[in-house]
Amino acid sequence: MEDLAKKAIDAAQKSGAEFVDLRLESTLGTNIVVMDGKTRNMSAQRESGCGIRAFVGGAWGFSATNDLSTKSLKSAAEAAVRMAKVARSKAKIEFRIADGKAVRRTEKYRCKERPSDITVDEKLAFVLSLDKQMRSHGSRISSTNVRYDDLEAERLVANSFGSLVRASEKWVLSGCSAWARTENLLQRGHASEGSVGGYELMRKEVSQNLGNAAAEQALRLLDSRPVPAGKFTVILDNKMTGMLAHEAFGHACEADGILGGSSVLADRLGQKVANEGITMVDDPTLEDTFGHFSFDWEGVKAKKNVLIADGVLTGFMHNIESSSRMGLEPTGSARAQAYNSPPIIRMSNTYIAPGKQDKDELFEGLKRGLLIQGNQYGYVEPAKGQFMFKCDEVYEIVNGEVGQRFRDASISGLILEVLNNVEGIANDFVLGDPGYCGKGGQSARTAEGGPHLRVANMVVGGLA
Predict the structure, then answer these.
(1) In 3D, which of 351, 349, 359, 356 has the Cα closest to residue 452?
(2) Contact 73/63 with Cβ under 8 angstroms?
(3) pLDDT of amino acid 93
(4) Which residue among 5, 251, 323, 378 is least packed, with the fewest CB closer than 10 Å?
(5) Closest CA to 311 of 238, 358, 257, 249
(6) pTM for the full model?
(7) pLDDT digit string, tens, across residues 246-263
(8) Residue 270: HSE in the Cβ half-sphere, 13 Å Cα cutoff
């Protein structure tokens, strides 16, 4: 494979490429979906191929092939160069890819039980058991959905700097959704578990009880009152803190958005953007997480990226293009969904770091507020810094005590205002649920989290 990669890179350079990189990938994966007790999908995917990028005078060309012969890879490399030359004629900004060091490394992520060693029958039995758990909670559970995914990937990344990085990764993920219904009301509960690693994760107690967790949440929401609307002092739980970090702020810290003028954080580097106690991080080096990787899909070593330090914006997430254009070092933040997609800047494990207060201290002195637990979805406009997030569960706080439960709540606001309205940061850090982040038509595995936060003047609204 190394010889194959070298021949493709040589072919691109002979055709006029200033810089070339490629990814040779072979993947094996399983997807199982069960809905309402019936198996809706069972598929095993095997894919192999190569994606090649060529850079010429400020523009990229990309080509991919699933034929891993020398002839096909050379042809794909030459096609990538031709596309880059066409794109160069329309490029608005000309720049060079900064010289990089050659890296030679082989990475194997930890795994006790390879997913491919587990029979499909056992995986299906696990998924069906989670579906049965949800439906066992009574007739008010009107619909159920369980999804299981696993993937094993062998990847070789090579470039014209002379780098050659091999990675052997494995990950698993399972998620349950339950809908509870009365005559006039429908509510959803959700629970998931996933990480880089092997099938051993699905044998953990929390994984074995995902169905119960989802159904119980749906039923709690069904028995809850609509949330009052207005401005409140709120306490965000670990999951909602994570969504705030990832969706509202993390996307605005992706350097391609900074360069493209689609981030509210442009020209704010070195400025105060949050309460001085806030430190925000994107860290792919955290093992046993869904967002973990050691080297990115450009062959750059992954590292802990501090985006905010004590309230000050200190950095962005970069790939080799954005770092070259901004005169900085790449941060190992480039990933691609598959070999036939070009790598783009992506988050990994994004979180707000823990503070020094006990969680109980956040409730002290709060005469009337709301406890926000969990998240379902959100909408963000990074260029304006606006966000709206749908919450899972909300509880009233009266004189520091947690009271009645509410449903159908959302929070919204301007991210820079919200981060500056933080009044308390607990020390109970949790990296929350795994998930897939979408960007540019690609999906990437991520995780998000943080401690409980106390935030003043949060806009809370009800959703019909």
Answers:
(1) 359
(2) no
(3) 87
(4) 378
(5) 249
(6) 0.95
(7) 999 999 999 999 999 999
(8) 1
Q: Which residue has the tokens 């006990």?
A: 358
Residue of 129, 125, 150, 143 whose CA lies nearest to 29:
150
Contacts of residue 94, Cβ cutoff 8 Å, sequence gap at least 6: 57, 58
Confidence check: pLDDT of 212 > 70: yes
Residue 236 backbone phi and psi in degrees, to 5: -90, 135
In whole angstroms, what is the distance from residue 148 CA to residue 15 CA? 44
In sign, the C-alpha dihedral spanning 336, 341, 343, 346 is negative
Mean pLDDT for 433-443 is 93
Transcribe 270-308 into DSSP letters.
Answer: TSB-S-TT--EEE-TT-SSSTT--SB-TTSPBP--EEEE
pLDDT of residue 463: 66
CB 216 within 8 A of CB 137: yes
Q: Which residues pair with 266 in a beta bridge?
A: none
Residue 360 tokens, joined: 């109980």
Q: Are 316 and 251 in contact (CB under 8 A)?
A: no
CA angle centred on 45, ends 43 and 51, rounded to 5°: 150
Whether the Cβ atoms of residue 4 and residue 70 lie closer than 8 Å to each other: yes
Which domains are delineated in the chain? 2-223 (3.30.2290.10), 226-462 (no CATH)
Rg, the chain, Cα only: 24
CA distances from 249 to 154, 293, 309, 414, 436 (A): 32, 21, 14, 10, 17
- Residue in the structure block whose two tokens are 């997030």: 389
Tell me how crowded residue 105 is: count the other CB atoms within 10 A of its CB: 14
d(CA 154, CA 162): 19
pLDDT at 91: 82
Written as six digits, the tokens of 245 are 């970090």
What is the rounded CA–CA span in Å between residue 194 and residue 66?
29
Count other Cβ atoms within 10 Å, centred on residue 156: 20
Mean pLDDT score of the chain: 95
Strand partners, 108: 168
Per-residue confidence band for 459, with pLDDT thresholds at 50, 70 and 90:
very high
CB 390 within 8 A of CB 463: yes
